[in-house]
């Protein structure tokens, strides 16, 4: 009996008749390898050790993402020989460890990888910043974000969240330590991801306001200054900002991008006019002998409430924000505590102009409430327009001024410490002065279309799509102070 070679032909040769059999064997081998790798995934020992220092509990999907993030970092640090330093930082938990750096930006060899890095556009395929030339980089659209398994984030935020603060939301919550030579805000070619070279920004404790004790609750309140019938002035962010004092924080939000792609130093920093001295308010001589009651600030469960309007009609239910970082966008997620999706809302009275504007809201605006400050960041491809009395007072503008925020820019629209100082000062001026501060706790914001003296729409109710924010913490604080103060000095009657 002759031996038959399974693939046909002579021993050691493959005939055309045996080719399908060989292909089948190769396929089965690769499939078996894939099955075994999924059943017994290989995790290098160094990755296992680093994952052992992870903080917080995650579900299965989140665990896999964390492992991929660590593997990505290990791969980068192997090339630069910094793995030992990372282990040392995690085991000692000391700020005296060295900076652990990775490249801030990377060069991609294809359009697809590049498009995924464009931060200015929700839909990269339609981005005006995307070059169709291979290896071309759009410098103004790269902010150094790291992509791990289809999720993008700033590298120092990713690894600080992984190894120190699982509830970290944004880079606004981090401040670099003085020892860090490659902090994110330094804009160097390398960025430090040592989680112990950053500290969490703490919310400052607001001192109580001393209010004369009064048990009488007013039946009526004085009227607020009404700017709704006046034509508000307009200003452009950041050109109209000329602060008296420039305050440069350790980790400023992403700044204004100039036309040539360079970040303007003046606008890249959050600008502040300096916080007033926040000691408990000193009362006037008339109040010095009164029984004073301290009224403290309490942080509410929902830091703001947001209502959506189309022209002069309110649409949908009020959104109550519990997360320190949330977005208002034009999409349709029905149950996300970090998103108020306007695309879900219906309105039988909606006209063509409103419909067209809604289509251009896109990613909308991101609102941050961190360290007692509120920031608005324009994520849309179109500008947003903000009317914030607190912000306007900071820069010496008219209280009703409307500020245009271009795409990719952000503006501090409220500061609790500034409000606390105003409240303490207003208590000395009487009930009416305190009540006037109510309007400072309301912020109006329109999408795509602006309003004011430079626009044909002169009131916010003339804009197709806009929102109104009520800051719950300051409003509740005002309520307690007004209740304690009693009633205004000028009585209001049916014949007054």
UniProtKB/TrEMBL annotation:
GO CC, alphabetical: cytoplasm; nucleus; transcription regulator complex
Domain MH1 positions: 45-207
Region (Disordered) location: 254-275
Protein keywords: Cytoplasm, Membrane, Metal-binding, Nucleus, Phosphoprotein, Transcription, Transcription regulation, Transmembrane, Transmembrane helix, Zinc
Domain of life: Eukaryota
Major place of residence: cytoplasm
Keyword Cell membrane in record: no
InterPro entries reported for this sequence: Dwarfin, MAD_homology1_Dwarfin-type, MAD_homology_MH1, SMAD-like_dom_sf, SMAD_dom_Dwarfin-type, SMAD_FHA_dom_sf, SMAD_MH1_sf
GO function term, MF aspect, one: metal ion binding
Cross-referenced Pfam families: MH1, MH2
BP terms from Gene Ontology: regulation of DNA-templated transcription
Localization annotation: Cytoplasm; Nucleus
Keyword Metal-binding: yes
Segments forming domain MH2: 303-496
Residue stretches of biased makeup (Polar residues): 264-275
PROSITE patterns cross-referenced by the UniProt entry: MH1, MH2
Transmembrane segments: 24-47
Family indicated by similarity: Belongs to the dwarfin/SMAD family.
Descriptive protein name: Mothers against decapentaplegic homolog
Organism for this UniProt entry: Xenopus tropicalis (Western clawed frog)
Gene designation: smad3
């Amino acid at each position: 009996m002759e031996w038959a070679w399974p693939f046909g032909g002579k021993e050691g040769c493959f005939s055309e008749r045996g080719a399908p059999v060989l292909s089948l064997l190769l396929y089965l081998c690769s499939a078996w390898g894939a099955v075994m790798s999924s059943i017994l995934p290989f995790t290098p020992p160094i990755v296992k050790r680093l994952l052992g220092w992870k903080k917080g509990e995650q579900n299965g999907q989140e665990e896999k993402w964390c492992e991929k993030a660590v593997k990505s970092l290990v791969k980068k640090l192997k090339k630069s020989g910094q793995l030992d330093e990372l282990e040392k930082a995690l085991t000692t938990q000391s700020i005296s460890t060295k900076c652990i750096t990775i490249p801030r930006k990377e060069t991609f060899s294809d359009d697809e990888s590049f498009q995924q890095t464009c931060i200015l556009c929700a839909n990269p395929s339609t981005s005006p910043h995307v070059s169709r030339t291979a290896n071309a980089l759009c410098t103004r659209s790269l902010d150094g974000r790291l992509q791990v398994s289809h999720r993008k984030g700033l590298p120092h935020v990713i690894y600080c969240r992984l190894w120190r603060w699982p509830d970290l939301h944004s880079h606004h919550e981090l401040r670099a330590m003085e020892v860090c030579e490659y902090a994110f805000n330094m804009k160097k070619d390398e960025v430090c991801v040592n989680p112990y070279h950053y500290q969490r920004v703490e919310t400052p404790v607001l001192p109580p306001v001393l209010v004369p004790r009064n048990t009488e609750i007013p039946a009526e309140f004085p009227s607020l200054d009404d700017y709704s019938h006046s034509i508000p002035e307009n200003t452009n962010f950041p050109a109209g900002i000329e602060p008296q004092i420039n305050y440069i924080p350790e980790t400023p939000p992403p700044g204004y991008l100039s036309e040539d792609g360079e970040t303007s130093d003046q606008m890249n920093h959050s600008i502040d006019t300096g916080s007033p001295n926040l000691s408990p308010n000193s009362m006037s001589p008339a109040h010095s002998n009164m029984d004073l009651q301290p009224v403290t600030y309490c942080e509410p469960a929902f830091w703001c409430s947001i209502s959506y309007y189309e022209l002069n009609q309110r649409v949908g239910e009020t959104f109550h924000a519990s997360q320190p970082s949330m977005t208002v966008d034009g999409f349709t997620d029905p149950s996300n505590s970090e998103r108020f999706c306007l695309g879900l809302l219906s309105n039988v009275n909606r006209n063509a102009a409103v419909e067209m504007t809604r289509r251009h809201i896109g990613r909308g605006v991101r609102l941050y409430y961190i360290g007692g400050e509120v920031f608005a960041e324009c994520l849309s491809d179109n500008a947003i327009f903000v009317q914030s009395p607190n912000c306007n007072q900071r820069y010496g503008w008219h209280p009703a001024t409307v500020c245009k925020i271009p795409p990719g820019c952000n503006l501090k629209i409220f500061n609790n410490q500034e409000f606390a100082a105003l409240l303490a000062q207003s208590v000395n001026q009487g009930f009416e002065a305190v009540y006037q501060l109510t309007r400072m706790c309301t912020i109006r914001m329109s999408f795509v279309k602006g309003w004011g003296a430079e626009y044909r729409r002169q009131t916010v109710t003339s804009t197709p799509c806009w929102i109104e924010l009520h800051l719950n913490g300051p409003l509740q604080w005002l309520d307690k102070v007004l209740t304690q103060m009693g009633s205004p000095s000028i009585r209001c009657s049916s014949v007054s």
